[in-house]
Amino acid sequence: MTLPDLVGLLGVAAYLTAYALLQLNRLGSHDPRYLVLNAAGSALILVSLFYDFNLPSFVTQTAWLVFTAVGFVRSRRARTGSGAGTDSPAGPAAHG
């Protein structure tokens, strides 16, 4: 196993951990820990893709990272009272 493969697998582990904790009601979709796990997952997979590029995976991971960043910003605004922040379904379930 190469280092990029290991980095990518750590990203997968982050995604799966986030999703499992969400499904077990241990984290909510706006919990900063959930968002960090999702961001780490996509970032680590993106790192691995620089060594073994795959365009569809790159597009998916980039979009996932952007969506997670948007979720983080909305979550922060909701907690500080400066935004509406709805609890929308989020998570790697659709991240087949």
From TrEMBL:
The keyword Membrane applies. The chain crosses the membrane at residues 6-22, 34-51, 57-73. It holds the Pfam family CBU_0592. InterPro entries: CBU_0592-like. Keywords: Membrane, Transmembrane, Transmembrane helix. Residues 5-79 form the CBU-0592-like domain. This is Cyclic nucleotide-binding protein. The lineage of its organism: Bacteria, Bacillati, Actinomycetota, Actinomycetes, Propionibacteriales.
